[in-house]
Specification:
Elements lengths: L1 H15 L6 H28 L1 H8 L5 H4 L2 H40 L13 H6 L10 H7 L5 H18 L8 H18 L5 H7 L4
Helix pairs in contact: 2-3, 2-5, 8-9
Bound molecules: zinc ion (2 copies).
Keywords: Membrane, Transmembrane, Transmembrane helix
InterPro entries: DUF6313 (IPR046280)
Pfam families: DUF6313
Length: about 210
């Protein structure tokens, strides 16, 4: 069960760090699924009614809706395929290139002793106990965890919320790339929290929920 919890936490961290991306990759992660999920559903229904081969051919304009029949399904699928598939394939290729090149370094950063910087929201315990090249105040992560009664999971949760809010509010120059944007957000939030006395802003919000 702890594997499931780890995956849920990883997904949450990924979701909160999305705003470091820009352009089509960002759109796909935030809104693109609103287009892609109905389209995928239409494909599945057409495949069930007309056969997977026919649905595939209609989607890619290899066969016309007239040849296959069931035009109430195949005409929308053909039009959707014409509109969505080329852009989606291009965007997917772009995401793969970006994620592979940044993950090759990111994976090193995820390992103890890794030096490179991942574009994801860094975990507080990495920042405290492993080598990294983020510009943050000394003992920042340890002190932030101590503000949460050394509950590192709660501290990590609040750290991610604060990073996400900063990413979506601040006007970064995202042409610098997702990893640079994340590095700037990490430094800015860490120094901001370091300069605050007393409670973490998220804890204060939980304590006074009507603000
Ligand atoms: Zn780092
Ligand atoms: Zn907190």
């Amino acid at each position: 069960m702890s594997v499931v919890r780890d995956v849920v936490r990883w997904f949450r961290r990924w979701r909160r760090g999305r705003a470091r991306h820009s352009g089509i990759p960002y759109w796909l992660m935030v809104q693109g699924y609103l287009v892609l999920v109905p389209f995928a559903l239409l494909f599945v229904i057409t495949a069930a009614v007309c056969g997977a081969r026919n649905a595939y051919d209609v989607m890619l304009q290899i066969a016309s809706p007239g040849e296959v029949g069931y035009q109430w399904l195949t005409v929308p699928l053909s039009m959707g395929g014409w509109l969505i598939v080329p852009g989606f394939a291009g965007a997917l290729a772009g995401i793969v290139v970006v994620e592979v090149t940044s993950n090759r370094r990111g994976r090193q950063a995820d390992r103890p002793g890794g030096r490179a910087r991942s574009g994801e929201i860094p975990r507080l315990n990495w920042l405290q106990y492993y080598r990294h090249d983020h510009d943050i105040p000394d003992y920042f992560a340890l002190r932030f965890a101590q503000r949460h009664g050394s509950d590192w999971k709660l501290a990590q949760d609040h750290w991610e919320i604060l990073i996400e809010r900063f990413l979506t509010i601040e006007a970064f120059d995202r042409r610098l790339g997702a990893r640079v944007v994340m590095a700037q957000a990490v430094s800015a939030v860490a120094y901001f929290l370091h300069g605050l006395s007393g409670k973490c802003p998220e804890c204060a919000k939980v304590a006074r929920p009507n603000e």
